[in-house]
Amino acid sequence: MQSTNLQTPLTHRRVFKIAAPIVLSNATVPILGAVDVGVVGQLGEAAPIAAVGVGAIILTTLYWIFGFLRMGTAGLVGQAAGAGDDAEVSAFLTRAMMVAVVGGMVLIVAQAALFYGAFWLTPVTSEVEGLARTYLTIRIWTAPFAIAVFAFTGWLVAMERTMGVFYVQLVMNGLNITLDFVFVLGFGWGVGGVAFATVIAEITGAGLGLYLCRDAFAHPAWRDWARVFERAKLVRMAAVNRDILLRSAMLMAIFSSFVVLGARFGTVTLAANEILIQFLYITAHAMDGFAFAAEALIARAYGQKNLARLRRSVVMTSQWGLGVCVTLAVFFAIAGPWIIDVMAKAPDVRAEARIYLWWMVLAPPLGCAAWMLDGIFIGATRGRDMRNMMAVSFVIYCAAAAVLLPTIGNHGLWLALIISFVARGITLGARYPALEKSIS
C-alpha cells in the first residue's frame, strides 16, 4: 500500500505534487461561501442572508472542534506508512471513522442545547434566528459525514494522495453550488434549499472520500477489532488529538478575541479589520499546501527513523513556504489597495483599511515559521510541544494586547496578532532539536 513511496527521492517536484492540489482545493472554499450568500441574496431580503451566515458559522465552529482528526490522522498514519506497517495504516482509518461517527451522533443528540448556547452567544432578531434554526436542523443530520471528511483528508495527505483531497473538495463544492441554484432559485426553497444542497454535498463528499481511501480496506486489519481497539494505540491517538485540540482552541481564541477587541474601535475600523483579515486567510490557504506536504514527508521520515530524510523534508518544504510568503507579501503591497476596493464600497472603510494594510505585507514573512513548524510538528506527532508552545504564545499575545491597545489602538491590535505568530515560530523552533532527538 505504501511501499512504493518508502524510497521515493525527495525532490521539489514531489513537494509541489503534494502541495498544489491542497492549494487548488482551498481555492474552492471562498467560492462556495460567496454562492451560498449570493443565491439567498436574490430573494431580496436581508434576513435569509444573515441566517445562512450565522448558521454556517455555528456549524463550522462545531465541526472545527473535530479538526484534530485530520491533523492527528495525517501524522500517525504517515508514520505507520513510513515504518512499512500496512496493518496500522488500515486499522487507524477505522478508528478515525469511528470517532467521526460517534462525534457526529453526539452533535445530533445535543443539537438543542448547542443551538441554544450558540444563539445566546450570538443574539440576532427572531426572524433571523428562526431561519437559521431551519438551516441548522437540516444540516446537523450530516454531522458524521462532515466529520468523516476530516479523517479521509488526513489519511489521503498521509499517503501523499492530495489529488484525492482536491477531488473531494471539487465534487463537494461543485455539487453544493449547483444544487444551491436548483433548490433556491429553481424550487424556491430559500434558506432550507441552501441547507439541503449542503447535506447532499457532504454525504457525496464523504462517500467519495471513503472510495478514495479504499486501499485501507484491502488489508484485513481494518476490521481486526483486537488491533483496532488495542489500548496502547487508542491512548496514543487520544493523547495526540487532545493536544492538537487544545492547541487549536487557543489559536481560535486569539482570532476570536481579535474580532471582539477590534469592535471597540468602532464600526468602520471593525469592517476594515474584517476585510484585512481575509488577506491572512488567503495566506493560510496558500500555506496549507506546503504545511500539508511537510506533514506527509516528515511523518514518513519519522516512521522510518531517518534523520537525514527528516531534515531534508524540513528544508525543502520550508523553502517553498518562505517563497510563497514573500511572494504574497509583495503581491499584497502592490495589489492590496485594489483588493480592498473590490471588497468594500464604502469610502470610509476603504480609507481605514489602507491605513493598516502594511500589517498584511508584514504578516506572511513574519508568520511563515509558525505555519511551517505547525506542519512539521504535526508530522512528527509532537502534539504536546504544539500545545505548550501555543499556550506560551497565547499568554504573550494577551500581554501584548493589554499593553499595546491602550497606547496605539488598532495598530496595537494588529501588532499583538503578529507578535503571536512570531512567538509561535520562535517557541516551536526552540523545541525543534528535541523533535530531531526523539526520532531515534
Key structural traits:
about 450 residues; 16 helices; 2 domains; mainly alpha
Please describe the topology of this protein.
Blueprint: H1 3-6, H2 12-41, H3 46-64, H4 68-82, H5 86-109, H6 111-121, H7 126-139, H8 143-158, H9 162-186, H10 190-212, H11 225-228, H12 231-262, H13 267-304, H14 307-343, H15 347-379, H16 383-438
Helix pairs in contact: 2-3, 2-9, 2-13, 3-7, 4-5, 4-8, 4-12, 4-13, 5-8, 7-10, 8-10, 9-10, 12-16, 13-14, 13-15, 14-15, 15-16
Structural account:
The chain has 440 residues and is mainly alpha-helical. It has 2 domains: 9-229, no CATH class; 241-440, no CATH class. Helices cover 87% and strands 0% of the residues. The chain has 16 helices and no strands. Helix 4 crosses helix 12 (231-262) and helix 8 runs parallel beside helix 10.
* DSSP strand tally: 0
Helix fraction bin = over 70%
Q: How much is the average pLDDT?
A: 91
Q: What is the string of helix and strand elements?
A: HHHHHHHHHHHHHHHH
**Count of domains:** 2
Question: Distance between the terminal alpha carbons, to the nearest Å?
Answer: 25 Å
**Could you give a short account of the major beta sheet?**
none
Strand-residue proportion: under 5%
- Shape, per Cα inertia axes: globular
Radius of gyration: 22 Å
Question: Which stretches are low in confidence, meaning pLDDT under 50 for 5 or more residues running?
Answer: none
Number of helices: 16
Instruction: Please identify the structural class as seen in this structure.
Output: mainly alpha
